[in-house]
Amino acid sequence: MKVFKLSFLGVLQATALANAYIWPSPYDALEDAYTVSGGFGDGGIVDGVNPCSLSPIGGRLPGRQAAAEWLRLAYHDVATFNSTTGLGGLDASIGFETERPENIGSAMNTSLVFFAAFQTKTSSMSDVIALSVILAIKNCGGPSIPFRAGRIDAEAAGPLGVPQPQQNLASHTAAFANMGFNVTEMITLVACGHTLGGVHAVDFPTVVPQSAITSSNPDGVVHFDDTFDSFDNHIATQWINGSSEDVLAVGDNITTNSDARIFGADGNATMRAFAADASLFQAQCSVLLERMLNTVPSSVQLSDVIEPLEVKPYQLSLTLNADGQLALGGNIRIFGTSDEAEAAVAAQMPVSLSWKDLDGTANATHSTTLTAVSQTSTSLWGSVYFFTIDALLEAQSGISSFTVDWAFSASDTLTHSDNGGAGFPLQSVVLFQPQGTCTDIKGNITALALIRNDLGAVSSVSFSYNYNVNQPGSVSVKQVTLQTEMERVGVSSASPIYDTYTTTFGKGPFTDEGFITFDISAVVGGQTFVAPDNQEAGLLTQCGSRR
Ligand code: HEM
Ligand SMILES: *[C@@H]1O[C@H](CO)[C@@H](O)[C@H](O)[C@H]1NC(C)=O
Ligand SMILES: *[C@@H]1O[C@H](CO)[C@@H](O)[C@H](O)[C@H]1NC(C)=O
Ligand SMILES: *[C@@H]1O[C@H](CO)[C@@H](O)[C@H](O)[C@H]1NC(C)=O
Ligand SMILES: *[C@@H]1O[C@H](CO)[C@@H](O)[C@H](O)[C@H]1NC(C)=O
Ligand SMILES: *[C@@H]1O[C@H](CO)[C@@H](O)[C@H](O)[C@H]1NC(C)=O
Ligand SMILES: *[C@@H]1O[C@H](CO)[C@@H](O)[C@H](O)[C@H]1NC(C)=O
Ligand SMILES: *[C@@H]1O[C@H](CO)[C@@H](O)[C@H](O)[C@H]1NC(C)=O
Ligand SMILES: *[C@@H]1O[C@H](CO)[C@@H](O)[C@H](O)[C@H]1NC(C)=O
To answer: Which pTM was predicted?
Structure first.
């Protein structure tokens, strides 16, 4: 009877939550970067484009605008998609194509180098490019474009064919048709692109007069509209009311006035509609930029739309201390879009975490109250708060999962968050052990793990190190995994129920760019246990230094 009831519930949940995002997910790093845009737990991408006028990190030249450069990069990556063959699209092949005249400018390089820091074993460069555009446009006052992940990076350059301003309208219409967009959609995409940024005299000397280059405008940028740092319809209002300053529309060189030819391709009907209705412009840009970002090779299956999780663990750590107890650390993030969420004061929010033992049993005493992180956090999509976990668990009873009970205000009924039913999984069978883990002067890393020795046979103890390597022919890097076996050293000095395992490895050729994590896994008593997504900082202590 009990078994029947459980499986019946299981079916119900599977149906109701078929599309739910359950933690942990391959897209956790992207979801973090999407959700938190400033303060504690900052995803880091929005910092590159905030404010909207910000010039790119690494090349802080006045007149350059990272938000515009990211949007142009995404378009140039997609522009050569062939809708007949289903090849190309947003696949980061742009990294192999930066020396092509059609991709002129140092912006492509600067952007790709910035993006490398957000690649992980499950966040491709092309997913990061898509996310960068969505965050940049939102931060510039534009629409909320839905985000899907799962893009796969190309390992070689794609075909030539990004439209250039000196080409005629027939050629541009054909290029957009090849990409899968009709004339109305071409006009819309160009208007949505050319509401940010402008044309640079250093790269387009036949379009922009060299007199535009001054000490305060070293690249000689001429903006497309009077609000280059606002994602608004001024590109359309100025075109229709005769005050356009877009050098690709009203420039002295008729040959390169591609925007004029494109905007007028339907007798100005689309641009007139955008000029008359600012919200129509936002809505159409959202629909078409979403389609542009989701133009991917036909073999790629994109994920469901990723939206901020209401409750999510962040950088959890579980280690054995010298007294043989398990120390649970890290954070819980709480997100909401309601007025109450916005008005909440983290220090007054009740938040507690309750865990189940290793064998799955609950125990009323296995609960801890969380403390609000004093530094605040921001999100482009709502309100977000972080809470610190600081709990000691008995090693013997261990942990298999936890739930979070919380409310935005002390007077509210608590919400019980159980990660879609099964709780947030966290295991104490395989642990990363920071004490004794270190990097030697040759750069070799010695890493330690602890594994329960009382739960059956232990095998396949493996250390996986995820890091970035350069790709021949590309500016952008690629994340690879180096896997080494770990060997048993002996029983842990801190607890007789754990054995210590170790491995030493050299990183080999690598690049400093990028995000590094490592996973430790083992089969124990016939079941696989993983301590995932540990941060590289845990490996960087110098060997021999006192800790
Ligand atoms: C026929 C189609 C197009 C042509 C010929 C074209 C041409 C150009 C040119 C010549 C520039 C100046 C680049 C520089 O000086 O750095 C530019 C900038 C830009 N384009 Fe386009 N473009 C087209 C379509 C699009 C589309 C569809 C988008 C996006 C949806 C887009 C987004 C941008 C952005 C954001 C900039 C500003 C870059 C910056 O300020 O650094 N363009 N475009
Ligand atoms: C797209 O692919 C088709 C089929 O292979 C080919 O005929 C066509 O020329 C391609 N388009 C472009 C612009 O290369
Ligand atoms: C971009 O980087 C690539 C590879 O490092 C280099 O070959 C190319 O010249 C760079 N382009 C620009 C415009 O800096
Ligand atoms: C382009 O496609 C859209 C959506 O299907 C349609 O509304 C529009 O009329 C089309 N434009 C042209 C010029 O075919
Ligand atoms: C206009 O642009 C075209 C294409 O870049 C170029 O060949 C031509 O010399 C330019 N004309 C002038 C007057 O600058
Ligand atoms: C044209 O549109 C722009 C942007 O909306 C506005 O600032 C400007 O005043 C308008 N000019 C005329 C002549 O209507
Ligand atoms: C489209 O608008 C431009 C700029 O306002 C104008 O010069 C042109 O004559 C218009 N074309 C048509 C067909 O109305
Ligand atoms: C619950 O945990 C406490 C303290 O860890 C322990 O003493 C007690 O035996 C546990 N109760 C059950 C039913 O396991
Ligand atoms: C340690 O580093 C050296 C030099 O980089 C390398 O040759 C050696 O193979 C590394 N040792 C191990 C165990 O990885």
So the answer is: 0.94
Q: Which domain holds residue 120?
A: 28-293
Q: Is residue 22 part of a domain?
A: no
In this prediction, residue 59 carries a pLDDT of 61
Other CB atoms within 10 Å distance of the CB of residue 275? 21
Cα 106 to averaged position of ligand 3 atoms, centre (Å): 7
How far apart (Å, rounded) are the C-alpha atoms in residues 384 and 499? 39
Q: Are the beta carbons of 129 and 75 closer than 8 angstroms?
A: no
**Which of 238, 258, 293 is the last residue in one of the domains?**
293
Low-confidence ranges of the chain (pLDDT < 70): 1-19, 58-60, 508-509, 512-513, 546-547
State the distance from the centre of ligand 8 to the C-alpha of 329, rounded, in angstroms: 22
Nearest CA to 101 out of 164, 166, 154, 156 is that of 164
Query: How many structural domains comprise the chain?
Result: 3
Closest CA to 419 of 43, 13, 41: 13
Q: Whose CA is nearest to atom 1 of ligand 3?
A: 109
What single-letter amino acid sits at 178? N
Residue where a domain stops, chosen among 293, 319, 354: 293
- Which ligand is in closest contact with the Cα of 508? 9
